[in-house]
Design a protein that fits this description.
Helix content: 10-25%
Shape: globular
Largest sheet: 9 strands, antiparallel
Distance between the termini: 16 Å
Structural class: alpha+beta
Strand content: 25-35%
Low-confidence stretches: none
Order of helices and strands: EHEEHEEEHHHHEEE
Mean pLDDT: 95
Oligomer: single chain
DNA sequence: TTATAGATTGCCT
DNA sequence: GGCAATCTATAAT
């Protein structure tokens, strides 16, 4: 197995201002960044390879479409905070709020390329390790429910956390990696506003969710 | 108070 | 390819 290109020493925290703009721009800019989870003594990290933008206004598919509720209030709050929701009675999905306080909007993280703490992530997923091929690695965090489980993300634990704080155990960082090519497609798994091109992926990356490797 | 759909995944045929 | 699992929010009685 080739080791992924990754050097934890290069990681720099991304500031709140990064998220204080249109979710489409944040989504595009998040591709190639690194999601880092501190789990006890371990560091779990994955490169963001697939995201979707959910707009506050005029986006029927967004949880914020029907106005502010206790559940979605993070989306209406200041940028750079964690919004986790539970879906289909089985899975958590991880989002980051965008736009200034009072304006709704967010980005759903849909797939990560595992970089560090791979054994721990497999344990969190209930997988037997070690991973010996690409197919096994893909099962760790290619899909919104999978990546949340791999990093131990739950609503109870993580909703409302600040991804820009050095004190947080769940942050987004950057290591200088730049995607070579980005593809934009329709969002996956939704029925409302299904035609909007708001899904961003690193073109050709093998960890993008879906059946095709 | 009851019904139904949902930003998914994994197992079954 | 089909569908069950199983919690939450919202719509319909």
């Amino acid at each position: 197995m080739p080791q992924p290109e990754f050097d934890a020493a290069k990681l720099k925290l991304i500031p709140r201002e990064f998220y204080n703009r249109d979710p489409r721009r944040v989504a595009r800019a998040l591709l190639g960044k690194v999601l880092v989870r501190r789990q006890g003594e371990s560091l779990l990290a994955g490169r963001i390879v697939e995201v979707e933008a959910y707009l506050g206004a005029g986006d029927a598919a967004a949880h914020s479409a029907a106005g502010r509720t206790p559940r979605n209030s993070v989306l209406f709050g200041p940028p750079g905070y964690v919004y986790v929701y539970f879906i289909y009675g089985n899975h958590y999905c991880f989002n980051i709020s965008c736009l200034p306080d009072g304006e709704a909007g967010g980005v759903l993280l849909r797939a990560l390329e595992p970089l560090a703490g791979i054994d721990e992530m497999m344990k969190n997923r209930g997988m037997a390790g070690p991973a010996t091929n690409l197919q096994a690695l893909r099962m760790i965090s290619s899909g919104p429910g999978r990546l949340a489980e791999a990093l131990g993300i739950t609503r109870e634990r993580d909703n409302g956390k600040d991804v820009t704080s050095p004190a947080s155990d769940l942050v987004v960082m950057e290591d200088g990696f730049r995607p070579k090519k980005v593809a934009i497609t329709a969002r996956i798994g939704i029925t409302k506003s299904a035609d909007e091109l708001l899904r961003y992926v690193i073109a050709g990356n093998g960890f993008v969710s879906g059946k095709r490797a």
